[in-house]
Amino acid sequence: MEIERRQRQPRLNITENLAGYLFITPTILVMGTFVVLPILYAVFLSLQKVQLLGGIKYQFIGFRNFTRLVEDERVWIALGNTVQYVVIVVPTQTILALILAVTLNSGIRGKNWWRILYFLPTVTSSAVLTLIFMWIYNTDGLLNDFLAFAGLPTYNWLGDPAVALKGIMLMNIWSTAPFYMVIYLAALQDIPQTLYEAAELDGANQWQKFIRITVPILKPVTFFVMAVGVIGTFQLFDQSYIFSNGNGGPNNATLTIVLLIYQAVFRNLQMGYAAAIAFLLAAVIITTTLIQRRFFGGEKI
């Protein structure tokens, strides 16, 4: 009996392993087709000079595309605009989302209606929102009318390089903060009320409870919100494209890395150079996410 049981055990292990591999095969195929192969092809393209007209032809040029992007002034302008956008938008939308979530979680009247009202911009098409804000930002639009009524200086939001990118920032903070608000709201409702009751017994006020209990417990959620926010903001494209009609103007003020990749592929037909810029963007996103993980304790998620 013991010998038969030992002989049967390897067969069961093989069967279990085979079943496991069969279950994960669809995932492996999807990941391989839509993730691994595109990355490998992008690596191949970044080392080539690609001719698209008259048939696709490849010419190996090594790392020349990467040395070119280091010398390209527009790459650094686009990277500077994108970093400025990320540095301002991500912390602002995170703080605003947390404030909205705490407010809605405090038991105000009609909070379900407020949730719906706040969340509406998130489910609205980005292109539609951009067109609406272009109308608001017009020189004789709603925003300038309000600023003039309040006695404040007006701006040419669409044509002034000093404020064009800030107009996109305002729009995206307003439209994306509600999405992260819902994430924070779900996390707030999981915090045990006994912690707040114990803090009250020790004489803690609302601000102390927020700083000593709410913020530390939400640290992993904050990492997630900021990581997703960084990845999304570094990929800014559609709003910048619509605002500037694809040019990144005025005076490259709204030029972003992804818009530059678009121009390299569809206007200049430089697929190899675009792939090299894409790897620069990927390196920046990965580095920024690792820094966030270090400071916000993402390993606890």
TrEMBL record:
Tagged with keyword Transmembrane: yes
Major subcellular site: membrane
Protein's membrane topology: Multi-pass membrane protein
Listed GO biological process terms: transmembrane transport
Residues annotated as domain ABC transmembrane type-1: 79-292
Transmembrane domains' residue ranges: 21-44, 83-104, 116-137, 163-187, 217-237, 271-291
PANTHER family, per database record: ABC TRANSPORTER PERMEASE PROTEIN, INNER MEMBRANE ABC TRANSPORTER PERMEASE PROTEIN YCJO
Protein name: Sugar ABC transporter permease
Organism in which the protein naturally occurs: Hassallia byssoidea VB512170
